[in-house]
Specification:
The structure is a homodimer. Chain A contains 15 helices and 28 strands. By secondary structure, the first copy, chain A, is of the alpha/beta class. In chain A, β27 and β28 form a beta hairpin.
Amino acid sequence: MMQTKDALSESPPADLLLHGKVVNVCAGDISESYVGIKDGIVTYVGKKPIPAKNLVKLDSEYILPAYIDGHIHIESSLMIPSQFAATVIPKGTCCVVADPHEIANVRGVEGIRFMMKDSSRTPLRVYFMIPSCVPATHLETSGATIGLKEIEELKKAKKILGLGEVMNFQGVINRDKTVMDKIRACKGMVIDGHAPGLRGEELSAYVSAGIGSDHESVSKDEAREKHSLGMWIMIREGSTAKNLTELAGIVSKGSPERVMLVTDDRHAGDLSTEGHMDHCLRRAVEEGIDPIDAVRMATLKPAQYFGLKNLGSIAPGKRADIVIAKDLKEFKAKTVLIAGKIVAKDGEYLGGLKGLLTDAAVKGTVNLEEVQPEDLRMKCPRKGIKGKEKATARVIGIVEDQVITEELRYGIEVRRGEAQPDPEKDLLKILVAERHKGTGRIGRGFVKGFGLEHGAIASTVAHDSHNVIAVGTNDEDLCRAMNRLREIDGGFAIADGNRILDELPLSIAGLMTSLKASHIARKVKELKETSAQLGCNLRNPFMTLSFLTLPVIPKLKITDYGLVDAEELKVVDLFFE
Amino acid sequence: MMQTKDALSESPPADLLLHGKVVNVCAGDISESYVGIKDGIVTYVGKKPIPAKNLVKLDSEYILPAYIDGHIHIESSLMIPSQFAATVIPKGTCCVVADPHEIANVRGVEGIRFMMKDSSRTPLRVYFMIPSCVPATHLETSGATIGLKEIEELKKAKKILGLGEVMNFQGVINRDKTVMDKIRACKGMVIDGHAPGLRGEELSAYVSAGIGSDHESVSKDEAREKHSLGMWIMIREGSTAKNLTELAGIVSKGSPERVMLVTDDRHAGDLSTEGHMDHCLRRAVEEGIDPIDAVRMATLKPAQYFGLKNLGSIAPGKRADIVIAKDLKEFKAKTVLIAGKIVAKDGEYLGGLKGLLTDAAVKGTVNLEEVQPEDLRMKCPRKGIKGKEKATARVIGIVEDQVITEELRYGIEVRRGEAQPDPEKDLLKILVAERHKGTGRIGRGFVKGFGLEHGAIASTVAHDSHNVIAVGTNDEDLCRAMNRLREIDGGFAIADGNRILDELPLSIAGLMTSLKASHIARKVKELKETSAQLGCNLRNPFMTLSFLTLPVIPKLKITDYGLVDAEELKVVDLFFE
């Protein structure tokens, strides 16, 4: 038990020895040090060199632990996990905790298994949370259910860390059996929350059920209250929601206690241009957060929260996941090491791709009979004999860049018992066709705000059940666009004059493609331009489309069951009277 | 999924609602708030009152999470766990993580099971680490072995959190199979360290094996280095080692990252007079640590390190383990709640004692044949015919208040082939009799520093194997004292004139008693006074005695195998020549 001299003299040399400004997230300082790596593990950190096969001097550069995103829906990037990984690794990301909520709504456990399998093709460590709310509501038809049986099955997988954001906060507050059973099933694991605006006694009730985190705070007060109740605060800075400016103030200088940075949703284009966690770090520092504290919020802190004991710092015994960067302002990764191997250099992914894409389980998910114009007719109680008559209808009113909508009332023209769209007044048909069970069920309604003057657009990305959603000026183009998605196994499509103008196939569950980020970004831009040529001037028409099916966000939404009053949580008639 | 109004209006009222200055270790602030408790759990924290069966207004008092000691050897208090609990609960402690290293050396798994069982008789949460080094060395005879088989068996117990302080740091550095197998067996659990003075490359090697903490730092530099390598620093302020003054500076203000307060060893008298973690908190604040940060180091931080998810803060879902105190300077607990129930008030333990003491497994541990004066003779190569002759012997030199000793050389008088003690020159006999296996093995030597002028003292508390150790001026009194320990199943005894002057029976494994702290403290004081009457002026003769058997701390020690050179780690001859 005593020290004998030169105990280490015979220990084999390190594989790699780095020297540079080491950002030490444990001690909270930066010091010129050596980092020894052997067999993918950091084995040494210190001021003196040790024997090594390779010595790399990076004296003017920073050596940081690689970044961790604690909450992301990979599907929102439209990329499959392996492609997503190849995109974010060069940005310095070594690990993400994914909630595969979207694919679970389409393909359930099989879909999640695809995500696990495909993500293991690259060196990125992708952990998963079990989606807690599949289906999201009883007002829509999903492709699968994640119940207790599925949770028990998924829990066995090593990459599962716990239960994904428990959106049904009212169910938790009321201690509804269904949701509480799921929480109990995941006891001892991480349980993520999702509680926009929840405060006071209800928030206490939500937290006391065992919910550990929240990423939905939009005000400092809200975040402070959640934080003071013991929740881990995930400050979100993604493509859709950007909360850093508002929430930066909750971070205590010296060591950010129970706070981390996450992206939630991040589009392919933003990932490839702005970046991933490196962008969050940049933004955090812009907002006045101390650089070391910022790094802690994207490394040590998520590792602590998720119990990822061998990640999150450059310290002996931890995995050698390392970013080499020129400064702590841009945080741009010059070199990225994962498990001690160089996996990216100057923005280029070098990590390889193991095995083949095996996507059989998530292909062919658009189970839809060919749609005919007759299927899209909107029968009206008013007959409209001899020319024109009007019926007063509920119309979905778009609020650009927001997920809420308005409920509008318009007089809709009726011809031979059928309500007609009126592009001149921007009153377009909106349809949701069930695509999982082959029921042929189609929800019908009108929408104002897309501005299409002719043609139609359709998509299989429509939260949370991802049925086929389409908006158009006439039944022929609507059919064309929807049927095209049937032919290409899902994606985005634009039709006009009964032909397809443009499309982005998303044949993996109708949600993702194996294309590269830059390709997707270009395509999304083109689709937007094509939509604009048809008269649609929304900044992101397919994203707007994707949220119109969310029956839990006010006010008027649409699912395959028809129009849904999202406040009353019930299907409502299209026409008044 | 939407909020319906008055969701909570029908929820049952809280059992108890406290109002006072809540010390929020999550947010790092203090605010006048209400704390709702139901079924032993905190269900509400907020500014507004909620319906409750009882409302207690504590407006001028602080409401703190109850304290956690992350590293303690309960045996060092000489109290059995239930009695220890009844002593520390009134001091505000709700949880300790115990390393039952001492009893494991005497009774192995059975001994640890006794600790678990007895500790569950009170509301104190006592978690355990598996002692990693039993026996401590091959140079002594222990009562049991904790090997891989025992580790696998113990791991199944719910109260086991991991592997106790891995003292064999050289074995870890050299990746010795025996110690590495134990670490591997506890993978995924907490693995505590013990690495006094270890630095540089050797420290990196130790940490990279998976060691998570250290409580042996005595200098700021040493603690900083360990901290920067990712270790959790346990700042120790116990009865023996007091490191707070030196180490307070490593705590970063704002949130103490990876630092906690522990006691390691704490005597009954100190516990009942100075206190337990309340004393550490008092000392931390005296040393300039922010009071909220100090509280975090005795609540939130140990809970984080040990993964005790439902402890360490006053937040919804956490166990209602609460201290009510008048100030954040003395930290004296006026009232202590555990699981929502009042378990102590004004220093009085009210938590009750469940079940009976079942100590059969840890009784009768002094397996020693009656010792006769002939057994203690020290044969010498020099015959000493016709009167006196001298032989040069190795003599253990006491260094008061330290665990190290010196190796001295003295001429020892030999009569009829036997070396003789010489009380006038303070050259006393020291003996270690094996008491576990009944081998009759007795190690013999001389010691200088006790100062006994007549009589003898003996003890069964002798680290780490806890054989019978005795120091005395003559063989008759040595026999009397040692045989008395045999009669009373272990403890401390003082003999003079062939009768017992004083004793403290420690019949539980020869290490502990079920007496109260105040009783033990009084008795220890009396024993010291009795020793002083015999000429011994050591501040704590039985503690000094207990460390003379530690063969890993320099320089000259003694075990049942005889004198041990603790630097060379081998048994050495008593006489030179």
